[in-house]
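U., I forgot to send this yesterday:
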Amino acid sequence: MPYDELKERVYRVNMALVESGLVVLTWGNASGADRKAGVMAIKPSGVAYSTLKPADIVVLSIETGKVVDGTGRPSSDTPTHLHLYREFSSIGGVVHTHSTHATSFAQAQRDIPCFGTTHADNFYGAVPCTRAMSREEIESDYELNTGKVIVECFRQRGLDPLDMPGVLVSSHAPFTWGANEDKALENAIVIEFAAQMAMNSLALNPNLAPIPQTLLDKHFKRKHGPKAYYGQK
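Result:
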């Protein structure tokens, strides 16, 4: 089948969300894109991870949103994923969780400040929290409008989605992404740990300021971009 490899990859990342402790019950989903084929694959809606199989993964056209492979209903968050793929052309994977600490920042409607180098290694500054959605946005095309407020947040703040591979949706929870679904998963893990460390740091020092720009630049750019030197070639 033409999408078997993509479905297997997306299945594996969805299962890794459970194994990493980021997802309980069915509170999360992961998708991956095949840009050449113009499709994305995502977990089916409401299916327990304990029974999920690669064949259950649903494949849709990124352009039209129509199902091109699979018999189940795709995740209810599919319109959000589709909008992110359409607007952020550099990404190839999206993960959504309700992980405890990152979701707590989303519910508090505040950014996750960058207090240290662990955060700076992965996110170039404070992880943004979107504005609250209006009543009209919630009552009409809620999931699509979730994607729209994410993109609006990034446009207004001038953020590059690969420099800032995650966001908090106000009163909701985090979304992360990356060049592929594995990187999106990694960023979902990091955003949760960054949120937990930020919360602990604020408890110890409520007046703590973000790290200096020089230190942020050093740690992020040694791992990302044309002058990166961390790791092996």
